[in-house]
Amino acid sequence: MHLYNLTLKEPTAALHAVVGSFCGGRQQEILISSGVSLQLYRWDASGGVLQNILSSSAFGAIRTLAAFKLTGDDKDYAVVGSDSGRLSILEYDPKTTSFVPVHQEPFGKSGARRIVPGQFLATDPRGRALMIAAVEKTKLVYILNRDVSANLTVSSPLEAHRNTTIVHHVVGVDNGFENPIFAALEFEYDDGANAKSSEPLLTYYELDLGLNHVVRRWSSPTNSRANLLVPVPGGPSASSGDKDGPSGVLVCCEDHIVYVHMDVPQHRVPIPRRGRSSEDAGRGLLIVAAVVHKLKGGSFILLQSEMGDIYKVTVEHDREVVKCLTIKYFDTVPVASSLCILKSGFLFVAAEFGNHHFYQFVQLGDDDSDTQYRSSSYPTFGMAAPSDPLPIPSFQPRSLRNLVLVYEIKSLCPILNSQVIKVLPHADTPQILTACGRGPRSTLRMLVHGFDVDEVTNTDLHSAPNGLWTVRLKDDDAHDAYIVLSFADATRVLRVGEPIEEVQDSGFLVTSLTLAMQQMFMNGLLQVYPGGIRHIGLDKHVAEWRVPLDKRIVSCATNTRQVVVALSSAELVYFELDNGGKLNEYQERLALGSAVLTIGIGEVPEGHQRTPHLAVGCEDQTVRMISLDPETALQTISFQALTAPPSSICIVDMVDGSISNAQPTTFVLIGLINGILLRTVMDSIHGQLSDIRARFVGVGPVRIVPIKVQQRRSVLAISMRTWLQYTYHDRVHFTPLISERMDYACPFSSEDFPEGFISVLGTVLRISRIPQIDQILKEVEMPLDFTPRKLIAHPTNHLLYLIESDHRAAQGLSGATGAQRSSGEPGDHPSTVVWPRAPAGTWASCIRVSDPTTATTLNRIPLDNNEAAFSAAIVTFTSHEDTPYLVVGTASDVVMTPRSCSSGYLRVYRFTEGGTNLELLHKTEADDVPLALLSFQGRLLAGIGTSLRTYEMGKKRLLRKAENKEFPSAIVTLSTQGSRIIVGDIQHSIFFVAYKEPTNRLLIFADDTQARWVTAAAMLDYCTVAAGDKFGNVFVNRLDEVISEEVDRDPNGDGILREKGILMGAAHKTALVAHFHIGDIITTFHKTSLVAGGREVLLYTALHGTIGILVPLQSQDDIDFLSALEQHMRARFVSPIGRDHLSWRGYYTPVKAVVDGDLCEVFSQLPYSQKAAIAGELDRTVSDVLKKLEQIRIGACGF
Hints:
globular, 5-stranded mixed sheet, spliceosome, mRNA splicing, Methylamine Dehydrogenase, Chain H, 6% helix, Beta-prop_RSE1/DDB1/CPSF1_2nd, nucleus, 5-stranded antiparallel sheet, mainly beta, 94 strands, 1199 residues
């Protein structure tokens, strides 16, 4: 077995986020780390979206992220702390649209280790130095500077180690241009690992730039519950001679904020809390995120609590003397891992779970009625008794007042369960259904491959047209003036405006059908119809060319300067516009000898008189490239044989960095009548065609229409489905549109919709636009009340059944939560962010019936008696006429660590009302939490704690039939084929179990040689299982076929019982056949086919929102080629964080029998010289390598 790993969707979690001018200039960008990749976003005010301008895999674990700017520079650098053992400083390169490592300074071993720096990172606010620290002991300081060529330089590391010290947080202190100071929140212990003091220390480390060393300048005990440091602005102001602030830091403690600085009085204020009715009064409140923002007249700090509430903190000062520390409630947003404020007045919330929010500041909270609390209101600024708590003020959460939500970045994090089924009635491929989120921000999402299309308006034409165009009146017009519709014997011209209305004085011939419309150079309009060509000037003067009486025009192609028409006599007639604006016919005609079906001509390049090539598709299943150069006009350059007659041809220039970054690539797109789209690359000088690639678009002829998407040339391919070829991140992609079928389409631009297209289906005319092209999976969301635990689909009606449960959640408030989110904007009400906390030990849970096609809840059944649902399965009992039942595994009074419960239950429900309602038949008590359920040979197979049991249906309860109690920890996964069961243990990997019907025994006969913390598993065949563990690994184990046959031949299992165990386990061991490190915790596996008629792949979903596939390689040639390509990529590709690729993919166990497709895909991003060198060593051309990679990707997933 050999597998090929491809990531279909990068992780969408945001573990870190920083803001800076990474592209240079005044505009700021947001850099997000998902843990294993980097994404760069920029706010597009015109489109109202956050544009993803970069997405790059790090091929390593990103532990922390920061940004800095050298003094006087206009560009920010990104500095990354990772598991590579190196300090990585990255610079954005606009030429390659990627982050380029400027420096990669080694300092320790690779991996996430306690004493190896990388967990904490702090930069000097003036960009002069940075500190990178480990969890324990080690701290390194680097000096940042410029050389004589203005290039960034990094000094050798300066040590600031301190033994027997645990670091909680590190920040850079803003003290102007004095020696840089870094503040660390530390906890000391003695050699016996016992705490020396109950109080952590706030320590200042000063970098002496003159002596070039680091000293421990000042240290002071602080609150024992301190968890976060926030730097306070200081130093001289850039806009005035005053100070930006008093410097120092805010120490965020449980329920309090303390201002601390060297040799100055401390200030303390309490953190306001929600009203006691909506919070657990006995639980302290912590700050989890913070952001500092400087204004011309001062500064403010936003702090966020673990409840999602944001507080505005200001430090009132007179130069360097602090007068007062103030705090007030600001707004409530989702709990964030990072907060970022842009100078343009936006707040980015990188949410821990769910979608990331982008807000605009409406006001700064200075004029509202929220109470402000001041340190001066307390004795000695709140420090009279530092160890005693201050009176905690309260507030009532409200809807957003100071912020307004303007955009969301979709995030699947965390994916807890999923299904891959065909839900949509007219879809030819399955959809991915994911249960995501935590608490009231949980959602059920259906992922559909394709771009969403926004339909702006539609109108009925009362008759079906056979052609559609939009034209502008002048060269410099920004928007279209006319919409032209061609019918069987007439043409209608509509004026674009408010409203759109028909015009009669356009100058077009309206008594005949139209073959083409074109706005010509020198501000003229051109109409091609079967009887001739009509050239209309702005003054309505008409110049007309007519065909001979015995002939007619059957096809044509136009651009702003050239016109080519094909006559019914298989002749080509060529026209060209002269500098005076007159259309002149070329003196010769070209006889082709075969009827012309379609013609394609490209746009005239800027600064040129003509485009030099023409493509003609003929009835003899050929495409001929014809020269239009004056010296070789109408001469055939090359032929391309086809497998079917062509239906449409388009020549378009598009940017494709995989072919050339220097200039656009000329593509010739050929649509065939059998639904195949051919894409070839044309030599722009000689007109030769190469690199032919085929794609099935749909049943029926393919019609190709050039349009623009995000100001770049793109192409629509229309058949039974509509596809879009477009450029994204300088690479050409091909993605379907999720919209109604189209007969005809053309680009459209107006004042209200500057970039869109018009389409016709039958008699309906639609104006649409494509809002985004950064997500190839459309997400349809349905809000949930609690954290989803399990998602299953009904076998016949495709209804979905979800079980949800949450600890410390109030059952009575759950229904209102989902309703509020359904009726308002996400994040509009605080109850949608964090639910009120119930006492410890309280659970809220429900069973939900939903229809994924409409994203609606059909029924919701709450669970009582403090029961929480953890597993579910649809089971068919043979004793009850094969009627399906829903079995839900629940437990009461659950304690997760250590796992215990007062009682477990197996609830059996009957489907009623077509599956939309559930009737409880009975509950069967169990002695532990049922974590895994499965239908097995007409019975229920249940993993209850450490026991594996089978149950039969009874009248009042389930009847236990067989049991095995020999599993070491807890059963979390179950899979089965025939009489064989694969059991996943939470700590001890995979077990093979045989069910012997004559003796009614469940017998363990094989297990793994290595204990693994299994999170998901799936059977690949009767002897092979794939599983994932909690450390981000995926592995495939296989049982020897000889052993498998011996076990099956044993009818009673006596031979299994007599065999002696090996290594304190089963008598037989499985062999590891494949192993690969994903870098994310896999939650589900699905053996499925994502392409109609395609090969089966193993699809996996992971906790941080990752979706990927493992593709089985079917030939030795593919294995050899891809393995060799991977080896060359490892040697030539440099990870942005400096991580060794082989070590990363073999993090815990050496990688085995898996090729990293993500690394192979990076081949297209290399400079052409490196691509050519690698391809030469593989005895292939660059286009051959790219074509092979595309074939594997498209054949496996269709993406």
